[in-house]
Design goal:
The protein has 6 helices and 12 strands.
Length: 204
């Protein structure tokens, strides 16, 4: 009569005999949850960096040169794609890298500026009194702005690939009238929303 070895039947399937400890289910779940959250946070950070670099960016308004449209302390969002793939028009509010002359001419060490586009590449600009002329036609400033003009615009022809910028607070803005035009490559994006303070929320 054959004899059956009971140890052979149970073998390694019995952790109590092999000394192997089964993983704790709650511990495995916790590790999985932590791993999933780390991946979510990492993806969110990377997505945020990509959006900030290539799509949208927020800016703080440090001066009153765009009064009454933008006030000191306002926060705006600029659209970068509208510059990379779109067109820039007279009347657009844009954020751009401050030309080196700003520090010298305006005694201002800011790195970025926000102004309104007044002249496009090839435009001929001049002014008389409080009227700005673009290619011989009086510019219709259909946006809030402060007068008098004070600093006049000489006979300026905007170079190819560059733009003439002015602040809406004409008498107190240090702009292209003083330090010249801005290359398109230095324009960061178009302002399209003021989101802070909430009481001043508006589309620009």
């Amino acid at each position: 009569m054959p004899v059956t070895d009971s140890n052979a039947l149970s073998g390694s399937d019995d952790p109590s005999r092999t000394g192997t400890k089964q993983p704790d289910q709650p511990s495995r779940r916790r590790r999985r949850v932590v791993t999933e959250w780390l991946i979510i946070v990492l993806v969110a950070v990377v997505a945020s960096l990509l959006v900030r670099t290539f799509v949208f960016q927020t800016f703080y308004i440090p001066s009153g040169s765009m009064t009454p449209t933008l006030l000191v302390g306002d926060r705006i969002i600029v659209d970068k794609l509208s510059v990379d793939f779109g067109t820039i028009n007279i009347g657009d509010i844009v954020v751009f890298k401050a030309p080196p002359e700003v520090k010298l001419e305006c005694s201002d060490a800011v790195t970025d500026l926000v102004k309104r586009v007044i002249g496009l590449p090839g435009d001929r600009l001049t002014s008389k009194g409080n009227t700005i002329y673009v290619n011989g036609n009086a510019l219709k400033e259909n946006w809030p702005h402060s007068e008098p003009l004070v600093t006049q615009i000489g006979n300026v022809t905007v170079p190819a690939g560059q733009y003439f910028m002015m602040g809406d607070d004409h008498p107190h803005s240090c702009d292209s009238r003083t330090w010249g035009t801005v290359p398109r490559a230095d324009i960061i994006g178009k302002a399209f929303m003021e989101f802070w303070p909430l009481s001043r929320f508006k589309w620009i």
